[in-house]
Amino acid sequence: MIRIYPIFFSISLLLSTFDLFAQSKDTTISVGQHSLHFNITAGKGIPIIFESGAGNDASVWQKLLAPLSARLGAPLITYDRAGFGKSGIDTVNVNLSTEVADLKRALNKLGYNEQYFFVAHSFGGNYTLKFADENKGQVLGAVMIDIVSPYFMTMERGKSLKIEYADRLQEIKKESLGFYHLTMNYENSTAILHEVAPHATIPMTIIGSGISPFEEPDRSKFVAALKKFADEKDNRKYILEPNAQHHIFYDNPALVIEEIQSLYKKTTSTE
């Protein structure tokens, strides 16, 4: 009988974890003139908020959720930013600042009011840095996956990106209102990044890809700029995954899951 107890306990723990992950909530939250679509995996403790990259919706994170739920048991919150996935968009008042304010309003309505942990990819890093700046002391840590650093996304580059898409704007508008307004706001988003990034103090694990979404020489510049941003503060850990493309969590999910688990436990521990 003594040998059965550990086995029974392990099975019970595994079943409870699967049950926890099964308790996912798919919902939309009104934030004024539009609603944001959320998917929430039930859990206990500090919630993990996932910020997708430009042009992506919450579906990109799907394969990370079950392993993270099993390891951490924390609430996992993915959402579609305005104009993407199942989220609406207020085309009159959409910009990075209002989107960050809308996210905070929605999180409060969902009952998450005090502390957060973020996982951000690419352009989602801009939103995470702005959220942390607007809600000082509430973001305990962030895993930043191949984010756009201020040393790469200069004001000049922000302007040139908008010009690059100029001939396709009407086509883009028909395909995705979210991406259209993201493109129209490139300069404003870049200005905000340069405003908040120098003051960022939250602990970060920054995972860079060796195969960034650019051709040379911009590829090497992107990698070097991200490392420079990571090296600025002692509480930032830098990892280069040389064989992964921009969506590192597609090519090496084990690495991303391990680093999320590590920093989450380090920054949210009450011991």
Automatic annotation (TrEMBL):
Keywords for the protein's UniProt record, in alphabetical order: Hydrolase, Signal
Pfam family, one: Abhydrolase_1
Ranges for domain AB hydrolase-1: 47-152
SUPFAM superfamilies per the UniProt record, alphabetical: alpha/beta-Hydrolases
GO cellular component terms, A-Z: membrane
GO molecular function: hydrolase activity
Signal peptide: 1-22
Protein name per the record: Alpha/beta hydrolase family protein
Source taxonomy: Bacteria, Pseudomonadati, Bacteroidota, Sphingobacteriia, Sphingobacteriales
